């Protein structure tokens, strides 16, 4: 069994230090084989925020895989850094690679950068993946026989009911790629809302999606801080949703998915979904 601790969106600069410290004290007890932090480590990529985020990351259980989010790009009041060197501060703090890969016995994890500093659209916080980035992820996910395959990005692939924000684009091409490579699990964040689903093109391979809430930010979106603890075998994926209430983290719900001929199926029909086109 492989154990993955999935957290997202700590947003240092708008983080609750007591919640962050509590999480760090609890995390080693889960004995993860891998810790994944799926972006938005800071609010505006200010240097003081990056110092706090690095302190937090360095205390997460190893090995760990960390990717940037859209908030890890300098803000609009720092136009030169945003337009010319959007990921330089992040790289100076967390390493040059913004699409890290992790390989271990039975596990192959690939990441893709869904964050863009600017573009021909009004909302630059939206998630977009270029053809080159998609091709690179496709190549990295090829092979790895006998391994559980995991893809990590910041922006979400599915929206909770009633949620109106945009999903990562081009969603249809991303799902075609994950189906072709038979990806087992996709980890993301951004919405600050926990959501779990089994998704894929109609009639094709379905992957489990773990979208984690913010782990310690004060920027809540209708639910408390939380994280996911994931346990995986080749036949079953169980995801515990942990939430922060009354001064502690506690398991709220456990979701189970089983592997079939066409991918992963939720044991709870309420969470099953097929995506046939980009939203």
UniProtKB/TrEMBL annotation:
Top-level taxon of origin: Bacteria
InterPro entries: Calcineurin-like_PHP (IPR004843), CNP_phosphodiesterase-III (IPR050884), Metallo-depent_PP-like (IPR029052)
Keywords: Hydrolase, Iron, Metal-binding
Hydrolase listed as a keyword: yes
Residues annotated as domain Calcineurin-like phosphoesterase: 2-193
Family: Belongs to the cyclic nucleotide phosphodiesterase class-III family.
Name of the molecule in the record: Metallophosphoesterase
Originating species: Luteolibacter rhizosphaerae
